[in-house]
Amino acid sequence: MPKLADKTICCGCSACANKCAKGAIVMTPDEGGFLNPMVNNSLCVECGLCEKACPAIGPTSEPTAIQRAFLIQHKDETIRRQSTSGGAFTAIAQSIIDEGGIVYGACMKDGGVFHIGVERTEDLALFRNSKYVQSDMKGAFKEVKAHLAANRSVCFSGTPCQIAGLKYYLGKSYENLLTVDVVCHAIPSPYIFERYVELTKKRLPNAQKLVFRDKKRGYSYSTMAWYDANGKNIYRDSYEIDEWYRLFLHDKCDRSSCYACKYQNQPRMSDITIWDCYNAHDLCPEMDDNKGTTNVIVWTEKGMSVLDKAKHDVRSKEIDVRLTIKAATEHKRERPEWDEATFYKDAHDMQVEDFFNKYVPRTFKAHVASVLRYLLWRVGLHDTVRRIIQKRRS
């Protein structure tokens, strides 16, 4: 029997299942909906390939030739508005498509999040905006390998653990593969997300499309927003009120491996790392327009070559890597002291309203905080007050 990572350290990347030529490994959801490998003993031939493909039981950093940091904003304001931060990934991905390549990333589909490949510029919009749920890889790794073997350029984006999973699955380096990792807060429970969607549909039967980080009120005041089939906004709230946003930011339903993440290290296994830049005011005041800016660290010459090709589509400012690298490499979470087993049992047994009222109630205090924040935004003082609070906390 193969000795794969147990659920305390498994990141759910699916490299082992993709690697198994016999189909003996199936990614199976646990009580939180987190995918973990299940081995069918009758099909397993004990070849050991799945163990070699598992990033959880191997080293997860690679030598890097360079470390350069940039702040990036896409010149196309529509793309920047649709993006979580500054639209850097769209520019990077476009350079791969321009040379006939294919781009892989996470998209919302049929109520879930899946990794898919796209070849057309217009389809890059599917990858914009955060998805605070782990994507299902399905056969993405196998597709990537086939494209690489055919000498086609591939850009693969994902969380650091997904990048590690792909690298372990491939087993060797490919010059025509560009990897881009997104700095990850944590992977929250897919099952709790399903219940959140259920709760929303009960409250708002017309809710169709969810935007996790809507920037209607500006980059610094992003909200969870739901839209109906006609594109009309029917719900908008931030972390003071929204149940999913609160659980996510308070680390109440994270994957076990996230509490001791070994993938957000230095240097990365990826070519490029991207994430939010909320301190553009300090790093480059002229880029602080509250429409979104992307932090970028380039780890390899290959990554730098692609970023150079993308620069005609973006505004770019190189900064001292020492000012940003800590934010990209120190995102480990402390496990909260609470009864996780009871939490998931309640999630399965309780009525959806009762479950969320128990764990993330919409209290009077939360409503007051939400209203105050909204009023500060309305009078144009939101960002000023936010910076004052951040300075006092630091």
Structural class computed from helices and strand pairing: alpha+beta
Strand content: 15-25%
Q: What is the β-strand count?
A: 13
**What do the pLDDT scores average to?**
92
Contiguous uncertain segments of 5+ residues: none
Rg to the nearest angstrom?
21 Å
Overall shape: globular
The separation of the N and C termini measures 50 Å
Q: Main sheet: which strands, in order across? A: 5-4-6-7-11-12-3-13
**Proportion in helices:** 25-40%
Number of helices: 15
Characterise this structure.
An eight-stranded mixed β-sheet has the order 5-4-6-7-11-12-3-13, sandwiched between helices. Strands 8-9-10 form a three-stranded antiparallel β-sheet, with no helix packed on it. Strand 4 (102-109) and strand 5 (112-118) form a beta hairpin. It starts with 14 loop residues before the first helix and ends with a helix. It is globular and about 65 Å long. 34% of the residues lie in helices and 19% in strands. It is an alpha+beta fold. It has helices at 15-19, 49-52, 77-82, 88-98, 140-149, 160-170, 190-203, 243-249, 280-283, 301-310, 325-329, 340-349, 352-359, 364-378, 382-393; strands at residues 25-29, 35-39, 68-74, 102-109, 112-118, 154-158, 177-182, 209-214, 223-227, 233-237, 272-276, 294-298, 314-319. The mean pLDDT is 92.
